[in-house]
Amino acid sequence: KSGINRKDEKESGALKAQKLLLTWLSDDKNLYEKIKMYITPEDFTLGVYKQIAERVFDDFETKGVTNPAAIIDIFTDGDEQAKAAAIFHATLAGEADEKERPKALKDIIIRVKENALNLMKEDLATNPQGLKEVVRRKKELEQLMRTL
């Protein structure tokens, strides 16, 4: 297989992690308090995902709750609305039970952070000033992997 297919699979896994994290956040208001120190909307890398993350995080900060239907309604394009609706209905293959969920959450958080860091590294060729941010985020990720 070509390297392109592997990259697509990697991105797909990263997007699945972002989707699942947004789904879990919308389903469990207590989860936001647990992860807000580790994840920010900047860790979400694709347009619709990033917009939804910004809104979800803002809703939790300002209202203490989020409303997926209201978030879906901010998108005027039918395809974007469908993507947004799918994001709020993602499931983990073989849905994790309560014992497995903390480990699954840790894995998802790390995958989302790693993906954001990798995309930042790719942008260094066009944004050399971003090196400090990459180094800072890499240290955060290493710390996160030790503490989660």
Quaternary structure classification:
single chain
Alpha-carbon Rg, integer: 16 Å
How would the global form be characterised? Answer: globular
Beta fraction of the residues? under 5%
Number of helices, where a helix is a run of at least 4 consecutive DSSP H or I residues:
7
The profile of the biggest β sheet is: none
Task: Count all strands and give the number.
Answer: 0
| Helix-strand sequence | HHHHHHH
> Structural class per helix/strand content?
mainly alpha
> How far do the termini sit from each other?
35 Å
Low-confidence regions: 1-10
Helix-residue proportion: 55-70%
Mean pLDDT metric: 84
What is the topology?
Blueprint (H helix, E strand, L loop, with lengths): L2 H25 L1 H7 L11 H16 L5 H6 L4 H10 L13 H22 L8 H17 L1
Helix pairs in contact: 1-2, 1-3, 1-6, 6-7
Write up what this structure looks like.
This protein has about 150 residues and is mostly helical. The chain is built from seven helices and no strands. Helix 1 (about 5-25) packs across helix 2 (about 30-35), helix 1 (about 5-25) crosses helix 6 and helix 6 (about 100-120) packs antiparallel against helix 7.
Notable features of this structure?
single chain, 148 residues, mainly alpha, 7 helices, globular, disordered N terminus
Question: What is the compact description of this entry?
Answer:
The longest helix is centred in the N-terminal third of the chain and has 25 residues, at 3-27. The termini are far apart. This protein has helices spanning 3-27, 29-35, 47-62, 68-73, 78-87, 101-122, 131-147.
